[in-house]
Each structure stands twice: as C-alpha cells, then as structure tokens.
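Example 3.2
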Amino acid sequence: MARDGMSREEYEEYQKQMVEEKMERDAEFATKKAERACLRTCLRDKYRLPKSEQDEIMIQQAGDDVDVPEELIKIVDGDAPQEEEKTSMMENLQSMDMEQLKEKAQATFVEMKSKAEEKCTIM
C-alpha cells in the first residue's frame, strides 16, 4: 500500500520523521511558555504582585532548565531608570508655580468645553 507515490517503508519513515518534528516543536513551545511564565514571575516579584499557580506549574513542568533570556531580563531591569525619571519629574512639578499651572488647566478646560459646545447641539 503506497501513499502519494511512496513505498510502505518510505511512508513509515516519513510518519516517524513527522512525529519527531512535532515532538521537537512541542518541546520548544513548552520551553517558551515556561520562559514567559518565569518572566511573569520576575515581574510579579519586582512589583510585589500575587503569585500565579499556573506560572509555577508551567515552570515545574519545564524543569530547572528554564531561564529568562537576557534580553527580557534587560527589559525588566530597564524599568528602574523610568522610576528615577518619575522622581525628577515630581521634583520639577513641585518647583513649578501651582497658580500658573491651575490657570492654564482651567483655560484649557474652558477652551475644550467651548469647542465641544460648538460641535454638539445638545450641550
């Protein structure tokens, strides 16, 4: 019994090869899922969020071989400079004239409200 012009032996070899390739893809997929779970765990630790049982299970299933890729670690660690920028921004806001800022915000609000009234007949 030949399939698509293959002999039985060729077909069996082809099937065997397909199964091996599928197993390799499944293993790579499981590893990627475990890496993502590990990254989420790192982020949860960093931001003190509750742990996820699903992520823990995925990491355990993949074994101890799972490490977060360096590029992703850099992304997680890259959030720290943003916090410093927020601090310096807060310092800048504190040194600003609040009355001037309040007047500007009110003027912007009045301007937006008048434009909305022009466009909307209900208002």
